[in-house]
Amino acid sequence: xxxxVILIGVGRNxxxxxxxxxxxxxxxxxxxxxxxxxxGNLFSARGARLHRIESLAGFDRESxxxxxxxxxxxxxxxxxxxxxxxxxxxxxxxxxxxRDFPRMARIPTGDNLCLTTEAALAIGLYHLEVLAHD
Length: 134
Hints:
Helix content is 19%, strand content 19%. It is built from two helices and six strands, in the order βαβββββα.
């Protein structure tokens, strides 16, 4: 299971991302450059802890798996999850780069359309959970 999730540039989908993390048992959510605000009713996700961060300093970058739609990246299903503690996902208009994340993967889709933040999170967290039990 992931120790935490790092959201980068997530705006209007921030509430949904928090609920998605919480439903997978991930309670620490780190927000880097997220213009969105957590507001309204998050139902039972009140135990989620949102941490606003200014940079990725303090994180071991090798322990982060970043998801992006770049075709040259390995597919998520073929990615070794050994040592992964954090999952990083960007907002729909944010592109994550290799210079920031040495471990990256993509979720293949039929039409190359960018997934919403919460959809990518759900797939990524599910994948890490399944691999943790294999």
